[in-house]
From TrEMBL:
Transmembrane portions of the chain: none
Protein name: FAD/NAD(P)-binding domain-containing protein
InterPro entries, per database record: Auxin_biosynth/cation_transpt, FAD/NAD-bd_sf
Pfam families cross-referenced by the UniProt entry: Pyr_redox_3
Gene3D superfamilies in the record: FAD/NAD(P)-binding domain (3.50.50.60)
GO molecular function: flavin adenine dinucleotide binding; monooxygenase activity
Length: 649
């Protein structure tokens, strides 16, 4: 994938219908069709946006003192929290409020929505959480108007809890009172663990204060070789997710070892197709402790990112064994410790480690391609490869190429072939969500991640304060705004016959990434090539079989091909873990990716059903934020600061 989360032979005539997910509407206009899909998804009992109309508010006075309102609310909130007054806290929230807790009160990732769910949560966890020392961050308080019919006061605050130092975000919405005035109640609250008591990160004032005269190199080599101590944590995989959790652990004074099977860090980015480039902007992709420099390009080429990851491991002094493989994994049933046998180097010696925690950092499917199977593939006289094996379109000059798939990798690979003058056809199996990076990204990321954005850690907290079910409602509106901005391009795609998808209930990119890690393309130019007919399009019939010279479809049509590239994604991450753990773990290992009923990612960065086993994954931004959460859970277990009591669904 190009987002680091990382998808007779003429173009068909224009389709006569607009495809919206699994729903088709008459060919009126894209925006009307999308509006119909979104409005049709609303139903009683589901959360809704706190519009002024819903709240019964006609207008917001121009002279309100937002800092006074936020201060008053937090004082009341603090008083109720410190006295474990659950009913008092509930009186400060709207009836359909969201409360998202990241480790502070639950030692889990939980979303509670509406009064009944929040009341049960508070009754169970408020007193034992020991919340105190609330402090408002005055500089963050502001009245926001994301749309003309929505207004809220957003504020960030800090506090202490039994677990450690924490941060919070609240958004207050206006509620009319009987005397015609307004009171302000919380529609969304985030409580987020930042630091364990007594165990600050070794950064800033906590870093090593003494000089090292001539001893660093030898000391560093002994650390890498684990001569004087063994790792507490073993991390399988040296991509961005493995590096970021290793960095977080290192600066919590937890020794860890990354085992990477490839010869160099960044291998998966360095060896992919030449056209691969991140479609997320640089200010969204910063890594912990070492942000990208201000000279960095907005969209990072894959080779450049590979080199950056290698330098990241070097500069942060992470312990990595490359060209190394895991030959055996076993967990002690009583101690829950892991015995892991590692072969260092291609023909090197084996070493056995006994570690407290094991972290899989294998990404989506551990890099194992998902390969579709069709009858006749063994008869095909051309070449069939997965996008993971594709290197350059120069290898296919003078040939006919068919790319199966219509998401990010498929678009990138097709565009690359056009650039080299190769006859290429995209076979689209399902509708695809399209938005441009130029117009869509500023609307999608807003002011949180941009050239003039707030500090990244502040932006991450604010972003996390929108639970996915609430974010979905907002993205339905954002998707319409993006479609309006991209209307000319989307109209052109529709006329070219491309099947446009809109995500779950018209929420666009968000839930496609969280549920499927695919189904979208963030356009950087390939869409226009489809409109212009330079990338040919085939999507009028499913594949029936391969022939000796191409592909035959169920409607009787055929597509000649010399090369077929399957841009069909990768295995489920759970499958990747089971390849190493063995089938005996299948009954215990929970889903890792995808959305839970509450709206959280199922298992990444949190409990996945097997003690002391974790899965670290996600794009660069998600790894940046949640690597701290995973590291805090591991550190707390190692130090006895947490007994494993989770408040889980």
């Amino acid at each position: 994938m190009a987002t680091a989360i990382s998808s007779a032979t003429s173009a068909l005539p224009a389709m006569d219908k607009l495809h919206l997910r699994d729903t088709e509407v008459a060919p009126q206009s894209i925006l009307k069709g999308l509006e119909r899909l979104v409005s049709g998804s609303a139903s009683s009992g589901k959360p809704t946006l706190p519009t002024l109309e819903k709240l019964g508010v006609r207008e917001i006075p121009s002279d309100i003192d937002v800092k006074a309102i936020a201060t008053s609310w937090l004082l009341s909130f603090a008083k109720c929290a410190q006295t474990a007054d659950a009913d008092g806290l509930l009186s400060l929230l709207t009836e359909d409020a969201f409360w998202r807790d990241l480790l502070v009160m639950t030692w889990d990732f939980r979303i509670f929505q509406s009064t009944p769910a929040i009341r049960s949560f508070l009754n169970d966890r408020l007193a034992r959480s020991k919340l105190s020392s609330f402090k408002l961050n005055d500089a963050t308080v502001e009245l926001q108007r994301p749309w003309h019919d929505i207004a809220w006061i957003q504020a960030l605050f800090s506090f202490e809890a039994d677990a450690g130092r924490a941060s919070g975000v609240v958004r207050l919405v206006p509620i009319p009172t009987s005397d015609g005035k307004l009171t302000w109640k919380a529609h969304a609250v985030l409580t987020n663990l930042e630091e364990l008591k007594g165990f600050p990160e070794k950064t800033g004032p906590h870093r090593e204060p003494l000089p090292n005269h001539g001893k660093w190199l030898e000391k560093r080599q002994r650390e890498i070789d684990f001569v004087d101590e063994e790792p507490k944590v073993l991390i399988i995989g040296g991509g961005q997710s493995g590096l970021e959790i290793a960095a977080r652990l290192k600066y919590l004074n937890v020794p860890s070892l990354i085992v990477e099977r490839h010869p160099r860090i960044g291998h998966n980015w360095r060896t992919r197709y030449e056209a691969l480039c991140l479609h997320d902007p640089v200010w969204y992709d910063h890594m912990p402790y070492l942000p990208f420099p201000p000279t960095w390009p907005v969209y990072t080429p894959a080779m450049k990112l590979a080199d950056w990851l290698e330098s990241y491991a070097h500069h942060l002094e992470l312990n990595v064994w490359t060209s190394s493989t895991i030959t055996k994994i076993n967990q002690d049933d009583k101690t829950k410790k892991w015995t892991v046998v590692v072969q260092r180097g291609e023909n090197g010696p084996e070493r056995t480690f006994t570690v407290e925690h094991l972290v899989f950092a294998l990404g989506f499917g551990g890099g194992e391609p998902r390969r579709p199977k069709y009858p006749g593939m063994d008869e095909f006289e051309g070449k069939i490869i997965h996008s993971a094996q594709h290197k350059t379109a120069r290898d296919h000059v003078g040939k006919k190429v068919v790319v199966i798939g219509a998401c990010t990798s498929a678009h990138d690979i097709c565009a690359e072939h056009v650039e080299h003058g190769v006859d290429v056809t995209m076979f689209q199996r399902n509708p695809t969500y399209i938005m441009t990076t130029k117009r869509g990204m500023p609307l999608l990321l807003g002011s949180l991640y941009s050239e003039t954005a707030p500090p990244t850690d502040t932006a991450d907290r604010i972003n996390a304060s929108f639970p996915n079910p609430l974010m979905k409602l907002m993205h339905q509106r954002v998707t319409r705004d993006i479609a309006e901005a991209d209307k000319e391009l989307l109209d052109g795609l529709q006329k070219a016959g491309f099947k446009l998808g809109w995500g779950e209930d018209g929420s666009g990119f968000l839930y496609l990434a969280w549920k499927r890690a695919g189904g979208y393309y963030l356009d950087v130019g390939a869409s226009q090539l489809i409109i212009d007919g330079k990338i040919k399009l085939k999507n009028d019939s499913p594949i029936e079989r391969f022939t000796k010279t191409g592909i035959k479809f169920e409607n009787g049509s055929e597509l000649p091909a010399d090369v077929v590239i399957t841009a069909t994604g990768y295995d489920d991450p759970r499958t990747a873990a089971l390849r190493l753990l063995g089938d005996k773990a299948a009954d215990k290992l929970r889903p890792i990716w995808g959305i839970s009923e509450e709206g959280e990612i199922n298992g990444a960065w949190r409990d996945i059903g097997i003690p002391n086993l974790w899965y670290m994954m996600g794009n660069l931004a998600m790894c940046r934020f949640h690597s701290k959460h995973l590291a805090l859970q591991i550190k707390a277990r190692l130090e006895g600061a947490w007994n494993g009591d989770r408040y889980s669904a």
